[in-house]
Design a protein that fits this description.
homodimer; alpha/beta; 434 Repressor (Amino-terminal Domain); Rossmann fold; 13 helices; 18% strand; elongated; disordered C terminus; DNA-binding
Chain lengths: 367, 367
DNA sequence: TTGAAAGCGCTAACAA
DNA sequence: TTGTTAGCGCTTTCAA
């Protein structure tokens, strides 16, 4: 492994000054150098395998082309990967690199991590949360532009992007209404976060738009995982007048609802339709029938956050007018929604027809 | 936002030279400076909020304290987050930061990403794959130590860490054998990668150790997702003499196997025991009963890779004796394994007892 | 025990 | 159109 080739090596090999090399290799100073010299220098640089040292140019230009991504829980949710990827792609396309830190929710650690990022002269910071929340930007983040990812700034000082919870829930509930359901249960979750309230509002809104009266009994608040979905679904389905459609706060709960339905002998979607929010693909695609669910656009939010951050870095004026974006969430239709039984053309045939749907595609292989 | 405070500001405010500031703040040059001066400088530095510019010190020291993490698919698997987190933690603890790039499997892009990392003067590179494979280190990675993560070097030139596939499979199968099963199906996957062969060997090994004869009919190769699990399980369970235990290549397939079992009216674990590999928690914890599965230690592998990489960076001699580590995989016991029916104490009571197990914990709430 | 000065590799102001 | 030179902020010889 030979020593790294620097700009002086190129300058010597090409027989020009380092200045000329620098300019010949930069696309900003086009006019500066003779096209012929330029070609020659580029050729020599390529031959030597020269690549500028970003530490040195960063020091000189006061620009590191480094971005910090500060997260509280990268690993705990599979979506986080999508957010990080979106951020990374958007950064790389514009010439930046992402440095990742994850505090696991430890504030003291986060503070040190941020200061480390700042020591590395990051040009900006994306402050990401694993679920949508409202917060104040930690005071140690200073001197560089910041954008919030999956969070909103209580002070309204910095730009942010998060899912439009209300609209997402309305979409999911409307899907059931459009299929003909009038009695729709909502397995909400029991933590006091924006999503809980936003999605409840969306549920209300969808019902109101369809002229369906709100029934308190049809809403239950459960832990936001599979067991909560099971519990909530069992509770609602054992009502004297059970719902024919179920909207779950998120996909793991929907998985629980599937299990509950099966344990009660209910077929999906014939006896019970289900929608949800997440598009947690291992669940939504894995379940049979597939789950109709509203996708949270994590990749796009990651992209947007970095793209906005770079805008503010390149034009500091932009930072003075922060933008608060609530991202639209598209529905992904699979097989968990059908008209309620009461609307079915022939109720007697229903039982047999429905059985087909509960068997996997490969069932023909069986005797 | 005031201008950033540099070492000169501290030197002025403390009334000493920048040299003294540098030494007072560094723990390497302990003896160099008078304890009193040292305290004074530290106090002033803290008051001004001084933190050294890592770009500048990196340039001077030829050490960036930056590591590159090159991955082919961060977002596609939830485990990736664990690997990244393990890498990040290990790096941060020793004073390094991770820069993340993800090529999505695009080689041309990966080549450019690596060269960008190198331009940033990373001190080393972790080359990660989303699933265990054997490969040659791309030639553009040069001049810095490399460690492979979830991969092995065909040339044996660099250190690597990956799961011990054979042992993992043996553990999973042995769990069934220990419960009393003798007829054990294996829903393998159908791609030609180390895991496929390694786990098949592990299956063989476990059977051999227990003196169980291998039966070709009990092994099926399916796509490595939920539908493959369904297909494979249905196929094996419809055999004239069906297995009483099922080992699945990975958790999504196990989910499919659960679905297949339910559609055939089989209870887990009473009528069918299942083990798997992954500990994909949303599945393994979410299923009812919970899935007994062998965990792939992604976090630990990420930690090990970075830790080994830093060892090689700090002591280049180490790089000359690469280490190839196959990580042990611990089993996580939940509720999907029980003795086969033939061994049950009273077969007549079994049906009712088993029914309890198919209902969720909250079922008591119901009438 | 401390300070002056050189230099890491690069870019840009200034001069030619 | 090209070259000389200063300097980004730091660490470390070397000299005092």
């Amino acid at each position: 492994m030979m020593a790294k080739v620097g700009i002086r090596d190129v300058s010597k090999a090409a027989g020009v000054s380092v200045t000329t090399v620098s300019h010949a290799l930069s696309d900003v100073h086009q006019a500066r150098v003779n096209p012929e010299t330029r070609r020659h220098v580029q050729e020599v640089a390529a031959r030597l395998g020269y690549a500028p040292n970003r530490l040195a140019s960063g020091l000189r230009n006061q620009r590191s082309y480094l971005l910090g991504l500060v997260s509280d829980e990268i690993a705990s949710t599979p979506f986080a990967g999508e957010m990080v990827l979106g951020a990374q792609d958007a950064a790389y396309e514009r010439g930046w690199l992402i440095m990742l830190v994850d505090s696991g929710g430890n504030r003291a650690l986060e503070e040190r991590q941020v200061s480390t990022l700042l020591q590395h002269q990051v040009d900006g910071i994306v402050y990401a949360k694993m679920y949508h929340q409202r917060l104040t930007v930690p005071r140690e983040i200073t001197g560089v532009p910041v954008v919030l990812l999956d969070a909103e700034d209580l002070d309204g000082k910095v730009s942010s992007v998060a899912p439009d919870e209300l609209a997402a829930a309305r979409t999911a509930v409307k899907e059931l209404i459009d299929a003909g359901h009038r009695r729709i249960g909502f397995v909400n979750q029991n933590e006091d976060i924006p999503a809980t309230h936003g999605r409840l509002q969306g549920y209300h809104a969808a019902l109101a738009e369809a002229g369906i009266e709100y029934d308190d009994d049809l809403v239950t608040f459960e832990v936001p995982d599979v067991s909560g979905g099971r519990d909530g679904a069992l509770k609602l389905l054992s009502l004297p007048e059970p719902p024919t459609g179920l909207f779950c706060f998120r996909d793991p709960q929907a998985l629980g609802a599937y299990e509950a339905a099966h344990s009660l002998g209910l077929r999906i979607p014939d006896d019970l339709s289900i929608t949800s929010i997440d598009d947690f693909q291992i669940i939504s695609e894995g379940l049979w029938p597939g789950l109709t669910t509203v996708a949270l656009p994590h990749y796009e939010m990651g992209r947007w956050a970095v793209s906005r951050l770079l805008d503010e870095i390149e034009d500091p004026e932009k930072a003075k007018a922060p933008e608060r974006l609530l991202f639209e969430c598209p529905i992904v239709r699979r097989g968990s929604v059908a008209p309620p039984r009461s609307l079915s053309p022939s109720d007697s045939e229903q039982k047999d027809a429905s059985r087909m749907n509960t068997l996997p595609p490969a069932s023909e292989e069986l005797a």
